[in-house]
Structures are given as C-alpha cells and as structure tokens.
Amino acid sequence: MHRTAAPGRNRNRSLLGLAGAAALAIAMAGCSTPAAEGETSGGEVVFADYGGPTNESRQIAYFDSFQDETGTRVVSASLQDAIMYSMLEGEEGDYDLIQVSSDSLIKYKENLAVLPDGVPRADTFPEEIQDYAVGGFLIGITQGWLTDTFPDGGPQDWADFFDTEKYPGKRAWPGAPGSYDASFELALLADGVAPEDLYPLDLDRAVAKLDSIRDDLVFYESYPEVQTLLSTGSASIAVSVTGQFTALMNQGLDVTVQWNEAFLSPNFFVIPESAENKEAAYELATWLADGERQAVFTERTFYGPANEATFDYLPEDVASKLPGGPGNDGSLYFDEQYRADYLEELTSSYTEWLAG
Amino acid sequence: MQPTRTQTEKRWLLWPPLAFFAIALGIPMAMLLVQSFDRGGGAFVEMFTMSSFTAALLRTLVMAAVVTVLTTLIGAVYGLAIWAAPRWFSGILLAWLMLSLWTSIVVRTVGWMLLEIPRGAIYWLLSSLGLVEEPIELYQTALAMYPAMVAVMLPFVVLPAMTAMSSIDREQLNAAVIFGAGPTLVLRSVILPALMPALISGGVLVFVMSLGFYVTPLLLGGPANLTVSGLINLQVNTLNRPDLGASMSLLLVAATVVIYLIADRLFKVSEKWG
Prior knowledge:
The structure holds two protein chains of two kinds.
Chain A: H1 11-31, E1 44-49, H2 52-70, E2 73-78, H3 81-88, E3 97-100, H4 102-107, E4 134-146, H5 158-161, E5 171-174, H6 183-190, H7 203-211, E6 217-220, H8 225-231, E7 237-241, H9 242-250, E8 255-270, H10 278-288, H11 291-301, E9 304-305, H12 316-319, E10 332-333, H13 336-341, H14 343-355
Parallel strand pairs in A: 1-2, 1-3, 5-6, 5-7, 8-10
Antiparallel strand pairs in A: 3-8, 4-7, 4-8, 4-9
Chain B: H1 7-36, H2 43-49, H3 51-84, H4 87-102, H5 105-116, H6 121-128, H7 142-153, H8 155-166, H9 170-178, H10 183-210, H11 215-220, H12 228-237, H13 242-267, H14 269-272
C-alpha cells in the first residue's frame, strides 16, 4: 500500500552482494559452457528494454563496464511483447532480463526468478516487489508548472490542482486511451480521500471528480507534448511523468515540481524462471545495484535511484530534483497489487471517461 | 488492348501483382484471423458487448462521412480552381497539394497542433493583431480536427478531379457559351457531368481511407474522438488482448470491403479509376 519514499539505508547488503557475486563468478567459471564464438569467456546475458536514451544510459553506466570486467557479453534486445508475455507465462524465450511494469511483475510472480540471498535488493522500492526487481529506478508522476505562472506559489496538493479559480489556466492531462497513470488516485485525493484509504479505488467517485475539471483539461497523446503545452503557456499546469519537467529544466526553463502527493512508480527488469542465463543475470543484478554506478545512471536520466546508497554519490543539486530525493517528501506509492488485479476495469473506465 | 499480344502473354502479366497481394495482404489477414481465435473466438461476440467499441464504431463512421462530404466539396472547388486558374497560379495550387501529400501525416498533425493549441501560432497571430486576449478555445474541438483530416484527404479527390477536367474539350465550353449558356448552365450541363464520376470515386476512396484515422482525431479533436483504430491499439498494446484487437481489425477490413462493393454496385467506381 502507500507509504512515504525513504526507508532506511542498508549498505551492508551491497557488500554482501559483492561477495555473493564473486562466489557466483567462481562457481560459473567452473561449469561454464564453451563460449559460442570468440574470445569472451563467460557467455552472454540478454536484456530487453524499450531502447532510446534509457537504454543508452544503461549501457554507459552499467553494461560496458560489466562486459569489460567479467567477459560476459551483455546483449541489448528491443522488447517484443509477444516474447515478453510468453516468457512471463512460463515458456522458453531469448530474454534473461525483461523490463516490465509492476502490475506484470505481480501478475506473473510464479514464473519469475526470486533473487538469491547474495543479490542486493532495491531498498527504495515497495517491499512486495523487492525480491524480483532488478536494475530499477523510480519514476515520479505529479504536477509541475513554469515557476513564473504562479508568482505567489503554485498548487500544494491535488485539491489545489482542481481549484481552477485559485490557479487558473488549462491543465495538461494524459489523453491516450489506457494511459490513466495516477488519474483516479489523484482525483480521489483531491476529493478528500486520505492516502491510506485510496484502495480499493472508488471509481464512480473518481470519475465524478474528473468530470468536474474536464473542461479545463488539454489532453496529450504522448509525454513530450507536455513540454510544448507548458512552454507555450497553452497549459498552466501539467500532470505528467517528471522526466518531462526535467527536460524543460534542461532547456533552461524554471519549473516547479510538486512532490507532495506525487506518485512514485518503480521501473525495473525481472528475470523469468525460464531464462537461459540466470546465473549471469544474477551477477548483472548485483552490478546494477551498486550505488556509484547508479549515480552515473541517475545523473544522465534524473530518475530516482533504486538504492538509497546512491544518494551518497550524488551532488545536492541533482539529488533534490529526484523522485524520492532529499526534501521531496510526501510522495506516495500505488497499490500495484490492486492495479494489477483491476487492470481491465481501470483501463476501460478511463477509456470510457476519455471518450465520454 | 494490343491486338498483337496473345491472351497468354497478358495473363502472365497478372502474376506479379497477384503474388504481391497474396503475400502482402493474404498472409497478414490469415494471421489476424488466427489471432482473433486466440481465446476461442469469443472476441467477435465480446467486442459488441463493449460500449466503448460500439460507440467508437459509430463515431468512426460518422467522422468518415463528414470528412468525405467536406473533402469532396472542397476538392471539387480546388480541382476547378487548378483547372481554371492561370498557369502560374495553378502550378502553385498543385505544388501545395503535392507538398502536403509528401509530408508524413504525423508531422502534419503536430504542425496543426502547434497552430491550434490555446497559445499556439493562431493565438499568436490574432493577439499580435489585437483581436484576442485570452487563449483560444480551438484545440481539441471538432473545428480543430476536420480541417486537418480534410487536408490529409484532399489530394485523393483533387487529383482525379483534375484528370476529369483536363478531358473536357475547351471547344465544348466555347460552344456552350456561344449558344448563350450562362456560367450556371455551363457548370451544370458541361462541367459537373464530366466531374461527377471523379468526385464519386474520389469520395469512396476518401471514405474508406478515413475509416483508418487514428492520431489526427485523437490529438486535434481530443480523446472524445477515439476511433476504432485507437481502440485496436489499446487492445493490443495496453490490455494484452490481441484477439480482441484482431477481431476489431477484421471487422474494420470487412466493413471497408462491404462499403466498397456497395459503392461499386451503385456508382461503378472501379470503372472510373484508370
């Protein structure tokens, strides 16, 4: 269920993890299959993600050094839904690590590998996914605006967001069918539901609240449109993944991100039980959990780190802009179990509301 | 028809296009059919119980009809203008049309978006003329969506209309004028009869193609204008229900074929192409 974003630090674990990895590496050297072709000693491990800048940052922060250090080839695959679902359902496939959403993790848990004790867990993630999630980061979904828009300070919470008298102007809002993000949750929070009472979601109440603001919304189909809508002044506030606000800041604009009642969503790989190179995948998982390497990745992407230890390697001005960063209090987590169980209801309710 | 060629020679020429369509159309359709029975074929019934689907289907048909009427009317005027204008100006009109035809539909849609958003280019123009002060309420309304869709479809009416007009004998027009016909009568009894078949075949083409609109209405018209294509995308990419997506796709293809066959029976469309 929901909780705030800063559980205690745990550095012993990562030390333990390194030891575990070393042990694994020795074990693997003993029984390694002959390398398919060429010089590499330790075979390969295949990860599947959606490419783009995240993939590039992963290569630079983690995979290049892992490959040099261990001799295990890290192969990047462009994620195919068909392969992903068949592996999640327990069948054989080419991937060793697959980027999935939290609801998929929960839905297909029994076909996923539980991380061995030696592999450090993502300690900023909700407890129920820590044993499966590898190489993760946190995405924030919240409201942000150009600081100039509200010189006397902008909305403090979702109730303020719905107050179009006090904070006039259009709100940029996710408009692709099925892209409900945090829409139901934030509507209920605005309507006075306490964070701990959000689930199970009262969809009728949420939809009624959403209806009340519909005329003040301008919808986007893909996240980058948020930048256009905000920077032209076409929308005064946007609800979006925080990466879009970071992108605007990188263009030199002064953007305020409201972390209070922001939703944090973990993003990660899982290792399917049917993966061919599980041992190498565990070794890579340990590599990915290292704070110093995560700091390199974080500085490139501005996603929130999966391990608290990473903050030790980040400058203050970077850390303060991150989901789960110091001072960015009041963030909430989704109930991923509920969202997994009710995926179809949520999608169809939201699509019907959008089309209505 | 070349009398010197034998029947066998001509039949041989049919094989490459037939083979192409068997591969490029037949195989994907067969795969769609297989996929739609992924969960036992219940998807064909299930989709009609989904109010979001029936609403999207109706919306798509209405939208395609509106686009067809608007495009045919504007296309006729545009085609006539190209035909009647002095050479340099008809060159410009034609260049505009081809330029838009050669530009990706996504690029054009984003272009319209930048024009139409509350503080976009239209707002900027109007406000610098002192005509508006508040951001404009145009983006994500029907008024924002139809011009963009008509612009996408316009070449498919204008090009056949131009071909039809160029086949009018100018002497026939001169004759009509000499015998005392006014502009209205010339338009009604000489120009329209020549133009009509082209407008009908162009209109059918536009209607059928408009059934596939997705990004343009969703972005410019707002999410209230979700089409069947958008719903198919949702089934496949978000809900992991490829069987539903496939049966909706098959229905859309079937509807297209049926509409085309009816139009062909009524208007002899296929005889007018080529």
